[in-house]
Design goal:
heterodimer; A: 609 residues; alpha/beta; eight-stranded mixed sheet; globular; B: alpha+beta; Aminopeptidase; 8 strands
Chain lengths: 609, 200
């Protein structure tokens, strides 16, 4: 094997039988060490593993008291907070499986996910989420109870967290070993999580991940030797996403504490207080930090901007020479010391000053942004994985920093490139299938265990993976969320009789926008009906009346979409897509790339400011 | 004027020219397509054919630069049921190149309809056309396999999930109309997906 792969250290815990067992082992190994840190008003509070264990075990007993049986689904509909982790660990220790739902998911999709998963109990963050559940209660015959973190309980269908604790405490008095017996019976192939992922058309699909997926990810991450119990994680990303869940498994395995607060607006302040040693996130967060710093400097201008530019050039040269295995010259080192003191160290201070590395995953990170962080002495390690592979397939390692690559596969995970370039993955992290969708499963998972990712890529001579393209009609925002443009275009055409084409654009952007072309006949007819004088397409399409009408249609569309899918801005083209311009083939197939290239400036204009 | 074909399940089919009078049939046939089939046809979400589209797809067929054929499956009682449409349209700026599109109603897919239509379309192709130039989705393996069987094919990525495809056509179309139908049955070991009669 390649010498850069760390050797296995026998003192490390092996791969546990289940996530619940991992949690038990962690509590037993380091009961008095800090497990979680969470905001409470203006200050942060800490929980040891022993304290976390008490809460988790009691909540698990409460779920058992509600009649939850092995592998039955319990959903969590909440933002990222310590109660999310406690609820998830309790579900694991009750032998049940967690279904995750984003708090921003609309009521219709919530109803679909909960009914498709057959969820029996839902942890709901607050009254907003409870209202969604009440609105679709008649579609959820399997749902026996809602447990709310902050919302109002009604003593019946909706319980408070203390209500569940009371139920659990009583169960543990009656039967102190109730939870222990359940945990002992959980095997590696038992279902641990059912996470829903969107397809190009139709309803989201539930990805079935058994315990072995997460225990494998934990053990494989441990073997990379890049994290230790002395690290401190700051966790803010949505735990509904497999990326967040993966970080939970890694924490249980390695045992470092995690400071958790999912409020986006608090990230910068939190970093200064928590001073973590590592943090993971989608590219969007790194783009934001980069964008904000650059913008501030540009606005200040003058000497400061010149100094800033110089410092980053020096930082980049040093980073490059170190990455190439060299040592910077004495002059460069001296310059770097100055640049670091005056500029670069201040960037690091913004992130708390103790960061060893950052991890970017769930969408492609711009190599330029990664290089900028590297120049500031902040290594961003890019990773690759899908929900179907438990989020962890490849990772760039600190001793081999390359930009534009997503690194090599974790130990025991195989990556292969199919004849058409599609990336295939096989290993213990691969899902067992889509929930009661055998045909959809067979389409992506071969009999011998290879999962077809739908991404296209290449492996270099060192076995490092680079993602180059995609084989399915899904767009990924820089926030790591999938958007299915087809589904959005269909709704838009249904609500907007003037529409000819809508090109949804969001790839690598922080939000979705659209180019809209109108149907000439429909436009003329509409103009006449509205008494507009013009009969010219471009003039009509540019009129405020048409813009307002289309705006209203887009608002109708957005009301039916999940928040991350909504079209934040749009532009109406001055002509319908046509064969003459090459935007359509002669048989009227839309050439998306021709359109996006022709209107690149128009698209960019929707991402300014 | 029509051609006869036999599909991979043994049923009899007729292939004839699409005529201006078929406008309503085309409109109705489109309504029977699944969302996915519609998407593969236009590479965009198209819930219904608009009048503008029908003008182009029906009225502008001239049998010279724009050839369009329909395939009708003949049932046991001798009634014809429309199953698919195929067309070839010459590029106005490249006289030797044509775009190609085949649509098969979902319930008739995987029975060799597209292959039979393409075989006939090759024989009826606009004079002087030596290349097919079109775009397909990268996940549409069946269509790619069908195109590859027409001649040497180059497929290049054209953005996420899109391939620009160029097929160099042989001088003469296949002589034996049955050969296409046999291929449609998936008996060709070199093209295992040949039976995946689909849309392009």
């Amino acid at each position: 094997m390649d010498s850069t792969i760390p050797t296995y250290d026998d003192t490390r815990p092996g791969q546990a039988a289940s996530l619940a067992r991992m949690f038990y082992d962690r509590v037993a190994a380091t009961p008095d060490l800090e497990a979680f840190r969470y905001p409470d008003g203006d200050r942060w509070r800490s929980l040891t593993w022993r304290e976390a264990d008490q809460t988790v075990r009691t909540l698990a007993a409460g779920l058992l008291a509600l009649g939850i049986r092995p592998e039955e689904r319990v959903a969590i509909l909440s933002g990222t907070r310590v109660e999310w982790l406690e609820a998830d660990l309790a579900i694991m220790c009750a032998g049940a499986a967690t279904t995750t739902v984003y708090p921003t998911t609309n009521a219709d999709d919530v109803a679909f996910i909960l009914s498709d998963s057959g969820s029996r109990v839902v942890f709901a963050e607050d009254d907003t989420q409870i209202a969604k559940l009440r609105a679709c209660r008649d579609r959820l015959p399997d749902l026996v109870r809602v447990v709310t973190f902050d919302g109002h309980a009604d003593g019946g269908w909706v319980l408070s967290l203390p209500d569940l604790v009371a139920l659990g405490a009583r169960r543990l008095v009656e039967d102190p070993a109730a939870v222990d017996r359940v945990v002992a019976a959980i095997g590696p192939e038992h279902l641990a999580t059912l996470i829903y992922t969107s397809g190009t058309t139709g309803q989201p699909k539930g990805v079935e991940l058994p315990h072995r997926c997460w225990t494998y990810i934990g053990a494989a991450a441990d073997r990379l030797d890049i994290l230790s119990p002395e690290d401190l994680q700051f966790l803010w990303l949505p735990l509904s996403h497999s990326f967040g869940k993966m970080l939970e498994a890694v924490q249980l395995q390695i045992g470092f504490p995690t400071a958790i607060d999912g409020r986006l607006e608090r990230i910068v302040d939190n970093l200064a207080v928590v001073r973590p040693t590592f943090m993971a996130g989608p590219p969007r967060i790194f783009e934001k930090v980069h964008g904000k710093v650059v913008q501030t400097v540009e606005e200040d201008g003058g000497v400061k901007a010149v100094l800033f530019g110089w410092a980053f050039r020096v930082g980049d040269q040093v980073a490059r020479s170190r990455a190439a295995g060299g040592r910077p010259s004495r002059l460069l080192s001296a310059q770097h010391a100055v640049a670091d003191r005056l500029v670069l160290s201040k960037i690091r201070q913004r992130l708390g000053g103790r960061i060893r590395f950052l991890v970017s995953g769930s969408a492609a990170l711009s190599p330029d942004v990664a290089r900028w962080f590297h120049a500031a002495g902040l290594l961003v390690l890019e990773g690759y994985g899908l929900t179907e592979t438990s989020a962890g397939t490849c990772l760039v390692l600190p001793h081999d920093p390359v930009f534009g690559y997503v690194g090599r596969p974790l130990a025991d995970t195989e990556v292969r490139i199919a004849a058409d370039g599609e990336i295939l993955v096989r290993g213990p992290g691969v899902m067992r299938g889509y929930h009661h969708l055998p045909e959809a499963t067979a389409e992506v998972l071969s009999d011998d265990g290879w999962f077809a990712t739908g991404d296209v890529g290449e492996l270099d001579a060192h076995g490092r993976l680079r993602i180059t393209d995609r084989k399915k009609d899904l767009i990924k925002t820089s926030g790591g969320k999938y958007i299915a443009p087809q589904a959005i275009e269909i709704i838009f055409k249904a609500v907007c009789p003037l529409a000819s084409q809508m090109i949804v654009h969001a790839d690598g952007r922080s939000y979705a926008t659209a180019l809209i072309a109108l149907d000439p006949d429909a436009l003329l007819q509409w103009g006449r009906a509205q008494g507009l004088p013009s009969t010219d397409y471009a003039a009509l399409a540019g009129s405020t009346q048409v813009h307002d009408y289309v705006q209203a249609c887009v608002e109708q569309l957005n009301a039916r979409l999940n928040r991350w899918e909504t079209i934040k801005k749009f532009r109406i083209l001055d002509h319908d897509l046509s064969v003459d311009t090459g935007e359509l083939t002669p048989s009227m197939k839309v050439r998306r790339r021709v359109v996006e290239t022709a209107y690149a400036e128009l698209l960019d204009s929707m991402y300014v400011g | 004027m029509f051609a006869e074909a036999r599909l991979s399940d043994g049923s009899r089919a007729l292939i004839w020219d699409l005529l201006p009078g078929d406008r309503e049939a085309v409109r109705e046939g489109f309504e029977k397509l699944s969302e996915e089939t519609r998407f593969h046809r236009f590479l965009a979400a198209v819930p219904h054919l608009t009048e503008t589209m029908l003008d182009h797809l029906v009225d502008e067929i001239d049998g010279v630069d724009h050839v369009a054929l329909a395939l009708v499956v003949v049932d046991a009682a001798g009634n014809g049921v429309p199953a698919g449409v195929a067309r070839m349209i010459r590029y106005s700026d490249e006289r030797d190149a044509a775009d190609v599109a085949v649509t098969v109603i979902d319930e008739f897919q995987r029975r060799g309809v597209a292959t039979a239509l393409l075989g006939e379309l090759m024989r009826r192709r606009p004079a002087g056309v030596t290349r097919l130039v079109t775009t397909v989705t990268a996940d549409n393996a069946a269509s790619l396999a069908m195109l590859r069987r027409l001649g040497p094919t180059v497929a290049e990525p054209a953005g996420p999930n899109r391939l620009d495809v160029v097929v160099e056509l042989p001088d003469h179309g296949p002589d034996d109309p049955e050969s296409d139908v046999v291929a449609a049955a998936g008996t060709d070991p070199e093209h295992p997906s040949a039976a995946g009669d689909e849309i392009l």
